[in-house]
Amino acid sequence: MTIREAALVLRDGSIFEGEAIGAIPPNGICSGEVVFNTTFTGYQEVLSDPSYAGQIISFTTPHIGNYGTTGYDNESKQVFARGVVVRDLARRRSNWRSEEDLDHYLQVLKVAGIAGIDTRRLTRILRQAGSMTGAFGTASVSDLHKAAQREVGTEGVNLVAQVTTSEEYQFGTGQFNVVAFDFGIKQTILRCLGEMATVRVVPATTAAEQVLKMSPHGVFLSNGPGDPQNVTGVPETLRHLLGAGVPIFGICLGHQLLSLALGGTTFKLPFGHHGANHPVRNLRTGVVEITSQNHNFCVDPESLRDRVDITHTNLNDHTNEGMRVRDARCFSVQYHPEAGPGPHDSRYLFQEFCDLMESA
Amino acid sequence: MPRRSDLTSILIIGSGPIVIGQACEFDYSGTQACRVLRDEGYRVILANSNPATIMTDPDFADRTYIEPLTVDVLQAIIERERPDAVLPTLGGQTALNLAMALYARGVVGVPGTPELIGANALAIATAEDREKFKAAMIEIGLAVPPSGVAHSIEEANEVIASIGLPVIIRPAYILGGHGTGIAETAPQFVTAVANGLAASPISEVLIERSIVGWKEFELEVMRDRADNCVVICSIENVDAMGVHTGDSITVAPALTLSDFEYQRMRDAAFACIRRVGVETGGSNVQFAVNPQTGEQVIIEMNPRVSRSSALASKATGFPIAKIAAKLAVGYTLDEIPNDITKMTPASFEPTIDYVVTKVPRWAFEKFPGTSGVLGTQMQSVGEAMAIGRTFPESLQKALRSLEIGRLGLNCDPAEKPMALLSDEEIIAAIAIPTPERLFQVGECLRRGIDLNVVHLASRIDPWFIDQMQMIIEERVVLAAIGFEAMTRANWRRAKRLGFADGQLAYLWDVSEELVRNARIDIGVIPTYKTVDTCSAEFEAQTPYHYSTYEDESEVRPSSKPRVIILGSGPNRIGQGIEFDYCCVHASFALRDAGYETVMVNCNPETVSTDYDTSDRLYFEPLTVEDVMNVIEAETIAGGAPPRVVVSLGGQTPLKLSGELPASLIAGTSAQSIDVAEDRQKWSALCNQLGITQPPGGTALNVDDALNVAHRVGYPVLVRPSYVLGGRAMQIVHDDSHLVRAMGEMAVAGTLGREGGLSAHRPVLVDRFLEDATEIDVDAIRDATGDVLIGGIMEHVEEAGVHSGDSACAIPPQTLEPWAIEAIESYTKAIANALDVRGLLNVQFALTGSTIYVLEANPRASRTVPFVAKATGVPLAKIASRVMLGATLGELRAEGLLKNPINHGHVAVKEAVLPFNRFPEVDTALGPEMRSTGEVMGIDSTFGRAFVKAETAAGTELPTSGMVFLTLNDRDKSSSLVIAKRLRQLGLGIVATSGTADYLQKFGYPVDRVVGKVSESEVDLATQLNSDAVELLKRGEITFVINTPSGRRTRTDGEAIRKAANIYRVSSVTTIKAALAAVQGLAEAQEHPLEVRSLQEYHGR
Description:
The complex is a heterodimer.
Chain A: E1 5-10, E2 15-22, E3 30-37, H1 43-47, E4 55-59, E5 63-64, E6 83-86, E7 88-89, H2 102-108, E8 112-115, H3 119-129, E9 132-137, H4 141-150, H5 160-163, E10 169-171, E11 176-182, H6 187-194, E12 197-203, H7 208-213, E13 218-221, H8 234-244, E14 248-251, H9 253-261, E15 265-282, E16 288-300, E17 308-314, E18 320-325, E19 330-333, H10 348-359
Parallel strand pairs in A: 3-4, 4-6, 5-7, 6-8, 11-12, 11-13, 13-14, 14-19
Antiparallel strand pairs in A: 1-2, 1-9, 2-8, 3-9, 10-12, 15-16, 15-17, 17-18, 18-19
Helix pairs in contact in A: 8-9
Chain B: E1 9-13, H1 25-39, E2 43-47, E3 63-65, H2 71-81, E4 85-87, H3 92-104, E5 115-116, H4 121-128, H5 130-139, E6 147-150, H6 153-163, E7 167-171, E8 181-183, H7 186-199, E9 205-209, E10 215-223, E11 229-237, E12 250-252, H8 259-276, E13 281-289, E14 296-302, H9 307-316, H10 320-328, E15 355-361, E16 382-388, H11 391-401, H12 423-430, H13 437-446, H14 451-458, H15 462-481, H16 488-496, H17 501-508, H18 512-521, E17 527-530, E18 544-548, E19 562-566, H19 577-592, E20 596-601, E21 616-619, H20 624-638, E22 643-645, H21 651-656, H22 670-677, H23 679-689, E23 696-699, H24 702-712, E24 716-720, E25 730-732, H25 735-750, E26 763-767, E27 773-781, E28 787-798, E29 808-810, H26 817-833, E30 838-847, E31 850-857, H27 864-871, H28 875-883, H29 888-894, E32 906-912, E33 933-939, H30 942-952, E34 962-966, H31 975-984, E35 988-992, H32 993-1001, E36 1008-1010, H33 1027-1033, E37 1037-1042, H34 1046-1062, E38 1067-1068, H35 1071-1086, H36 1094-1098
Parallel strand pairs in B: 1-2, 1-4, 2-3, 4-5, 18-21, 19-20, 19-22, 20-21, 34-35, 34-37, 35-36, 37-38
Antiparallel strand pairs in B: 6-9, 7-8, 7-9, 10-11, 10-13, 11-12, 12-15, 13-14, 15-16, 17-18, 23-26, 24-25, 24-26, 27-28, 27-30, 28-29, 29-32, 30-31, 32-33
């Protein structure tokens, strides 16, 4: 295998030397907002999570690709992330579940990557300076720098429109009827919901009337990419649904959109939460859950003080992680109780959604 | 939940002496626990028999009992101190077993007695009793290998009928896998069951389906009172199931598990800890995974801090023992801040952005007759850990950290002998787990043997093999490029795969210095990253570093004067915890004196590699290259070169001293060190000082050696230079033996191994002094010539038994005042002549009225911590200050140096030998050190202290039954005293004919006379025809006194000593130890032994 020398250049001009992996990007340049993810395992789930649309994912774990890839671990049918940055891409995979190697997977799904760089230095820069755009590839460093500066990242873009399903479809055979808004829904969420409900996955722009016509037992608001402020129309839909009294459960972007619908505000975190080790306190039980997280934006709990009870808080930075709406059968969390990848500590929330629908 | 206020005092049970399977990781955990609980305001009482530990420093507890770890002793301590709680989960299996025994007696864990905190008796029993454990796991739906429990061969046969072979046999309540075996055939099964039943204190074995060849994983989990559970670290064994995890090469984090599998394992681990009922603290849960199907079974769990948790703590920066201690007194994880980030709580799961590799170190060369094959019973004596950004880098660093003459996976002189093996032979070799296997795997790959062939033979996961293949391929590339044509990118690539400069020098046949200079000139130097628990997501407050070749280094500048302390590397026989104690004390003392202290070490079990022992920690191999890199990094960060302490970490740093910049070395100069090591210079010095040495000389070859031997007369003592622990040291009685000994050392020399003969490392040949009393002195001299005699230790065993294997006493028991005076004055003269700045250890031998000096070492000795505990003088702290320029006078004024206490007590140090692990081995003591650890007994008289020391060392002194006496002619006269004392104690006497004749001639009755047990007559496996062996087997002989002398008697007595070892009957092999034992028993009979704390002895 010949080595294709490549570089990653950040908006601030920081240069990292490495080698190209995966697909070859047009003009030898791949750009996006660079974020780091600290999970040990689950690179395939992370890569195929639609919430990473518009972003370049850098894994802090140095060895990536060791156990290959398998169809089951895909969180969506394609990779919406712009690119991937690793310290070391395994050239040989080894695992009984494995179907193909990661490099091949990236090529098939047309994802460009760069390997061999000092990913810890990259993490430290992003931690200190905050999320930043960057560009990598085999192009010259100056071209890459220009591309990094041109790149708008996730700001002002409605990324949900890029990842949501165009057609309604059904998943699962459980007893409840659930309508799930697809803002970039993960396969693992569908599996969790599908165990107890027949899920009708609908496009993000589906109107409230249409949803109510399906007379669901509950409505689910999925995860998704980018800034909730850019997802126009959805908060209005949600206000309508809240008014109709249908039970609602939201995760991640779903949580943020619900907050906007309730009149709350959101803000951007310096470098986001991307990993599988974040401690979250369940304020009702006091128990600490280790959670899977992937978000750059966050709900300001103060902005919702009159309408919700805060149910979960992040113990690292004390940001909001969950809420229950006081006058509605509705709750949501910022983190990923479905895991995929990550710990299963919070899967009880799906049962709570069931209970909520049951009591309705 | 805040700290519990219903408790005021807590007893911590330590783990006792260092033994195979239980090393200084429990000093690390115990020390952390002591510190934490005292900081929390509890009164801490500590019981531990091991004086070499840092935890037994009187400063670390309110009451420190250096007493034997027996149920009686602990009960006495509990009755005396009346603690509110007992914490048994930080002292290894020893503490856990003791806690269960105390519980069984009703002394702890029942109403009205101290509470068991950490884990209660029910939880311990559920985890430790294999039947209960298995039932509990099945109850919660976790898969376990099918198995059954047996208490006899008959029961075992019933079990096997339903399971079928192959099976694995594990005894209940054991540590380090002792007595565990695999059986593939019916005869193997019978033997393995018998061994297992014998090893289990409750005669119980678990027989289970063999899952040899499956992948092995461990999860380190913690739980608090609020039922919060977290995984601190996942560990993957490179060696598949079938090799004890303590003997396996392991990596952290697990590298071949998908998230799907990992989360399933995590769920199972939590279910396990909850079901077992470990309320608070850390546990280790082990899993096996079928590589073909992913089937996952739970193997075992330890409801306590373990060797793996020490590794996990060092691998992640998360201090498991410290947190476990806090959880035990009521805190929850979210109430405890993460030490490293300060900003985030301990209730999270560390994530790391590097790879940690642990490689064990074995000592088979010291135990001739052992197979050297690894199995389910742990045999390693130590381990090295290395951190790299990738597996190849961390693996090669770990291999060079081992100090076994290997510079990495290959590419060093030690790889040569493997060329002699055919492809078939080497493929056959990698199917058998041995210390050499990984290197053989490398050799297979180098020959182009297919990865799948290597995988099928070794059962090592293909991913790891492929990573090793990358190293091999790089070697070929580097060889093709050649030294001259190396570009910056080539250098960087090689270093990123972990190649040492020494490997490259070997590859290109140029000097290491040339390689180093060329590499530095082209700008390829290491960067230092930080171990921070969080992969840089948060800022780390703790400077715990490792080297790697990346873009950015994280060492922070600082302008304080700094001292680098070089540690002692992996534990091995001859160099262990004692030196870690010295390094840690130096760090504490120098930090207190205003220096910034920098520790360099690669042993994950130690206190020295705790991130808050020093101001900065570099987890690095102790090689010239790696140490020079740290010196250079510190020079840049500090703006000025640091000082370097080389004399506290044993032979490891001392060996480096000549190659480090002389101006930086603190304390005694490298030149003086050389004078003490170089035979010619040393002899000249002794002559000049008028101190007698045993006659002798040096030899570079066999002829030289024979000449010296003929000149001084046999027996002679031969020893290589620059070794510790008497490696390859032998007493030689004739020419043919001498020729053989020299040959062995020459082979070791060409392989670059310790104890090897080379032009720079000649062999010393000295007249061996028979029946001499050996004396050890630890002293400190300062730059003004002031000398402090720290302690004079008289050995119990005569000269010829390695000082590390000999018991010794402070104060000396038989030395007359003139001898003590002479020894003191010789020590001072030598210290002055060598211009010592710091510690000096001198060994003397006394025969009649002549005092010989045997050797002098201007460095910390193994006895420094023992002396400190016995006298109350912190020698290592004082020495480290002196090395940096303080005078003894100044330290006296400061209060650090106080007069040695002398309240009439006697302290005895006794060695602990690993013979129960090596039943094939002769237990007679000799000049090659074989003990793994030590204990101390302290009491009002020598006899009482000796009995305590023996008890602590696990020697069971007889209280009933018969004692077997078989003595060499020289010792026969002493048999009268012994026989008389034994009679007074009410013990019977069995003797061999010669000894019996002698006793009867002087009117001492012998209860039973047995024939001589010569090796030719005895088949160790059946030996039913032998009288003495039969008596041992039946338990009628309760103690063996067998003294060998010369080569012939040694082999004669070997059979009886081996038999005693196999049947677990304690024995002594020197007449002086026998005399001490009977004296002690007599004294103990008069006054029952009592416990007393070190603080009371020290009167402080």
